[in-house]
Amino acid sequence: MTRGVLVGRAVFGLLGVPALAYGVLLVWQLGASQWVSLGEWLLGSVVGHDFVIAPILVGLGVLAAKVLPSYARMPVAVAVVVWGSITLAAIPVLGGFGASSSLPSLLNRPYVASWWIGTAIVVTAVVAVSLFRRRTR
Amino acid sequence: MTRLPVRPPREQDFRSPLRDQRVTARLGLWLGIAFSVAFVTGVFSHFGQTTPGWFTYPTRPVSIYRVTQGLHVLSGTAAVPLLLVKLWSVYPKLFARLPPWPPSRAGLVNAVERISIGVLVASAVFELVTGLQNITHWYTWGFGFRGGHYAVAWLAIGSIGVHVAVKLPIIARALTTPVDAPVDMPVGERWAFPGAPDRSPAISRRGLLRAAYAAAGLVVLSTAGQTVSWLRDVSVFGVRSGDGPQGVPVNRSSVQAGVTKTARDPAWRLKLVNGSTTRQLSRAELAAMPQHTRSLPISCVEGWSAGATWTGVLVSDLVALVDAPPDSELNVSSLERSGAFSTSTLPPQFTADSDTLLALQLNGEPLDIEHGYPARIIAAARPGVLQTKWVSRLEVNA
Predict the structure, then answer these.
(1) In this structure, what are the phi and psi dihedrals at residue A120, rounded to the nearest 5 degrees?
(2) Which neighbouring-strand residues pair with B270?
(3) pTM assigned to the model
(4) What's the first-to-final CA gap in chain B, in angstroms?
(5) What residues of chain A lie within 8 A of the CB of B117, using their CB?
(6) Residue A124: is it exposed, middle or buried by C-beta count within 10 angstroms (0-12/13-18/19+)?
(7) For a tag on chain B, would you pick the N or C end, based on fewer CB atoms within 10 A?
(8) Nearest by CB to B158, which of A16, A46, A100?
(9) Which of 7-36 (A) contact B at CB < 8 A?
(10) The complex's ipTM?
(11) A133 touches B: beta carbon within 8 Å
């Protein structure tokens, strides 16, 4: 290890450990009435990613490798990364779960229509790029 | 054709050469930047609302909170695709063999590292999920959002620090090696995870990185219009279009606050209190005082903001009516009976500030009830939740 890496390790460790400890203190201070829900959400975050989202992605990858022709795999991979993550980030607006009739300036866009238009654009682009790649192979 | 294993997966089962430490480290660098920006701006926002004694919240620049809180939400949003692809790239590690029992010293180190990564993943995903839900008022948890999001932010940034400290030798090597150079080192030495490499990945490592960066850029563009007004038309997933009464969005309505009757009551009076000295002013009396017009943004903790022109009475003129010095700390009360922000504290530097108004008008018209009619506080640089609406009382804090 170079000197720079050693110094960097010390700096990140000396900043990280107290910050982590302070976070534990803050969680402690929230009080027992909040720990259960907070714990559920922290655990749910790991489980939701590691045992729901990630296996779905792995499954899609295995499936794509089996069924997609080679010229289509690159555009599909890009589309899944880009449109998949945008869709995940947009779940709260797409579902409109927080909308309130007394608050018309919140969640006031046609999100689902936009999502379908976006999906149509992405699918068209994937098909176009795939066909182009098949021809120029 | 290979058969899918029916046993739990092992680390070696994952064969994509895209799952490579050079990819992980590059995404981690940008994630570290995004989380650091979100952390610093988040702490600033927290201090704006719960100000520690040693901290004086600034009154300038006028748009500081508009910028910091806009960055807070946008950096968190940009982190979503980066975190997803980064976790994808290291997913095989979840299935790495556990050290034998009883563990050796190396096994213990491995166990501690796994626990710390568990905290890192939990807190990072937690921050993004609760933050994205909160900006749409989608509250599905049993803890207070602000306290929970703030406490876990420290867990996240602390575990990121520890993670970088542990991995720095690998990070340094990975970042200084070209991302698309072929892997020709023996297993155990090379960047990619063990197992025979997949010979035909769908995309190059550089291509995967570009896709992740493009996703981060697009997810920002698709939401940034709620704070960057010229992006409104492209921000199709923005929580607010920017429309609202008098051209300004609303975050808490008169119905939600339960003030639809009291705010319109002609008997409304503003009560000014300084110990035993009190004054009551009708809206007409307030309107007869010297009026001042200021262009100030309203900037919400939820990351949206809007510029507006406010007209009203200087708060420093009001405190003079009850013989209080201009740099008095004020307790501001709303007609709203309950709710965390039915009252706020105006720090001395804001009471004295020539940009702090009790506004009666917005964009040249009498305040809409949704914007706080009959009168609201508007000050430079402060979080929107502290710009108390439907003000009923200003009391000097002795």
Answers:
(1) -60, -40
(2) B281
(3) 0.94
(4) 80
(5) none
(6) exposed
(7) N
(8) A16
(9) 8-13, 15-24, 26-27, 29-30, 34, 36
(10) 0.96
(11) no
